[in-house]
Amino acid sequence: MWRAVAVYRVASLAYAALVIAVNSDGYARPWGGWAVLAVMTAWTVYAVPAFRGGHRKGRPLLAADLAVAFGCILATAWVETASNIGHGRPTLPISWVAAAVLSWAVAGGRRAGIAAALTLGVANLLVHVVAGTTAGMGRGTFNGVVLLLLTGLVVGHVVRLALEAEARLARAVEMESATRERERLARRIHDSVLQVLAMVQRRGGELGGEAAELGRLAGEQEAALRAMIGTAAPITAAAGTADGNAAGGPGRTVDLRPLLAGHGSTSVTVSAPATQVRMPEHAAREVEAAVAAALDNVRRHCGDGARAWVLLEDDGAGAVTVSVRDDGPGMPADRLAAAAADGRLGVAQSIRGRIRDLGGSVSIVSAPGEGTEIEMTVPGPAAASAGGEARRGAVG
């Protein structure tokens, strides 16, 4: 964009020089026209490399660019005759001044471009005021002002779209690079670590005793590692996106599936939809922590041979449900109440408390000899957002 502005600045200077050369005989002060052209030439020689360098977005340079254009326009009232101004002869720099509007639009967007255009529009009107030809201020003057405004608006808008496209391209390239690196690591892990873990699991089972326990642990780590490298990493909403939330800010969302898949093992089966289940990052981390607490209870109370199943569901209507089921011995109906009375608040705080704080609910179904199922339901992103707006409205 800055190269395009530089080309326009040079081309419009050549056109202004041609017009000044043709009209100089009719000026009230012909030498003044050449003086203005000299100023325009000197500034162009300075501005082209200056805007191309590291200072192109500096406010002092932009202000000086606009000031030079403003002064060259006002000089028309001193160089031209009042008669020529009244008859609609263009200002001395003609379209050269639009380069300042372009610079402001490229550097600051639509608002900056419009502000620069309005400033130069005032200069065009002041030429008639100083020359005393306001009665002859015709359509040409207003057309020039309107064209400057349109230039600032359109170019500023195009620049904003270009910056957004560049940011999206950078994110796409970054994601592609991350995916390639992930695939490379997955191949390396598969060719080395996973094979070793599988061999340890197999040999441990054959040897029995303490080696069998090591084999079981190796099998669990193998399953967890396979789940980790086989599931796409959570994708976050980056800064400057349509939702207006900066990456890492309150609006950041993640895919819940990889978080739960990390708990998969030879004794824990994790099932999730094929499509992403996106949630606010804090909510997703809390749900994952609640699932981890439920699986820890299975390991502690159901024995080493117990199996567990984690099922993730997204009903598409604003609710996400995660259920953790085991084939353990189950528990009596009053077990949780007795645990809370004894001060053991694992389920009450680690599971119920977390889900309650997210605005969700927990249902626990268990019977002796029939295992236990914990079902956790939390609002999805849309429902959570609507609830947040309602709460802010109530506070306001």
Automatic annotation (TrEMBL):
Record carries keyword Transmembrane helix: yes
Location of the DUF5931 domain: 1-170
A Pfam family per the record: DUF5931
Domain of life of the native organism: Bacteria
Entry keyword Transmembrane: yes
Keywords: Kinase, Membrane, Transferase, Transmembrane, Transmembrane helix, Two-component regulatory system
GO MF assignments: kinase activity
TM annotation in the entry: 31-49, 61-79, 91-107, 114-135, 141-163
Histidine kinase/HSP90-like ATPase domain: residues covered: 286-379
Protein name (Swiss-Prot/TrEMBL): Sensor histidine kinase
Lineage: Bacteria, Bacillati, Actinomycetota, Actinomycetes, Streptosporangiales
